[in-house]
Each structure stands twice: as structure tokens, then as C-alpha cells.
TrEMBL record:
Keyword Oxidoreductase: no
Record's keyword annotation contains Transcription regulation: yes
Domain HTH tetR-type: 13-73
UniProt DNA-binding region: 36-55
GO molecular function list: DNA binding
UniProt source species: Chelatococcus composti
Name of the protein described by the UniProt record: AcrR family transcriptional regulator
Length: 201
């Protein structure tokens, strides 16, 4: 009997969400350039050709994984900033949430956006630029929320919103580095509370 040929293309039971979740976790753990298409295909349960057919090239797959991260594990930042609460309370909650999320069991430590692609080869310059833009967007979100607090009388009128936003974003990014180096949730919470002592009187 002639050997049956293996069908080409993606498997019939292919689940896009499950495969993309696996890709997100691997990119989150290793970063963009340290993750190969063969590694991705293995964790996604697809052949390399199926990965290309379903998601395009590695850069497009990474973009899809980043979107999934921002809509899922990384969504706490935008969600807390949007809450109708005093601005100081919002940032206190943000640091508390960050300490939990950056050390959550079963996930890579740190933030996928903050840790990825700060150093890239010229071939990955577009990925580095996209991630830098995302980090800059966080600073802009912080500044906008602080300006709302100033307008509401929750902060002194002379508060430098841009500088305060960049300071808070720098602390948040630093928590990611600490988490990657093994800092505990309690240690990250202590850093966040210390940072809030710099809040304008």
C-alpha cells in the first residue's frame, strides 16, 4: 500500500487564539530576536510553513502577539488610568497592580513591551521603533491622566505633568527589570510605595 502523504497547510484542528497565545508567551520570555521561527512553530503546534501562511512573517506575528499582550496581560495600565478615581489613587493602584502582574506565576516576569527590543540588530530596527513608540505612548497616557488631576484640583497647578509622567513611567519600567532579575512581589510593592512618596504635596 502506498504511503499516505501528509496533508499540507495548517492542521484541521488549528486554533488561532491558542497558537497566538503560545507565540506571545515565547516572545515575552525570550524577546524578538532570540526567538526563531522554528521555536515559534514548535510551541504553536504548527509547521513553519503554516505559521507563515497564517500569520505572515516573524515581524507580523510579533505585532499580533504584542496586540494580544496589550489586550490581555498588559491591559491593566489603560484600565486603571481610565477609572473615575483621584489621580493619586490611580497611580497607587497602578503600582500595586504592576507588582502583581509582573510577578504572576505561570507567566514570564516583567512587561513584554518594557523588556523587549531595547537592543536590536539593524534588521530589527522597525520592531525596536514600534516598541519605543509604545513605551512613549504610556508616558503620554500618564501625562494626560496627571493633567486631568491638575484640572480637577487634585494636584498643584504648577505641577510639571510631563516630568512627573516620565518619572512614574521610569519607575514602572524599572519594576520590570527588577522582576526579570527575580525581585519578589513584596519588593516591587515596596518600590512602588516609595515612588509615591515623591507625589507633589
Amino acid at each position: 500500500m502506498a504511503e499516505r502523504k501528509r496533508p499540507r497547510g495548517r492542521p484541521r484542528c488549528f486554533d488561532r487564539d491558542t497558537a497566538l497565545e503560545a507565540a506571545m508567551m515565547l516572545f515575552w520570555d525570550r524577546g524578538y530576536e532570540a526567538t526563531s521561527m522554528d521555536d515559534l512553530a514548535e510551541v504553536m503546534g504548527l509547521s513553519p510553513s503554516s505559521v507563515y501562511a497564517c500569520f505572515g512573517n516573524k515581524e507580523k506575528l510579533y505585532e499580533a502577539a504584542l496586540d494580544r499582550y496589550l489586550e490581555g496581560p498588559g491591559s491593566y495600565v489603560a484600565r486603571i488610568l481610565a477609572e473615575d478615581i483621584p489621580v493619586r489613587t490611580a497611580f497607587e493602584r497602578l503600582f500595586e497592580a504592576a507588582a502583581r502582574e509582573l510577578t504572576r506565576e505561570g507567566r514570564p516576569a516583567g512587561c513584554m513591551v518594557a523588556t523587549a527590543a531595547t537592543h536590536c540588530s539593524p534588521a530589527a530596527s522597525s520592531v525596536r521603533a514600534a516598541l519605543a513608540e509604545m513605551r512613549a505612548d504610556h508616558v503620554e497616557q500618564f501625562e494626560a491622566r496627571i493633567r486631568r488631576g491638575i484640572a480637577a484640583g487634585e494636584l498643584p497647578a504648577e505641577t510639571d505633568a510631563a516630568a512627573l509622567a516620565r518619572f512614574l513611567a521610569t519607575v514602572l519600567q524599572g519594576l520590570t527589570v527588577q522582576a526579570r532579575d527575580g525581585a519578589s512581589r513584596a519588593e516591587l510593592q515596596a518600590i512602588g510605595r516609595l515612588a509615591m512618596r515623591c507625589w507633589p504635596a
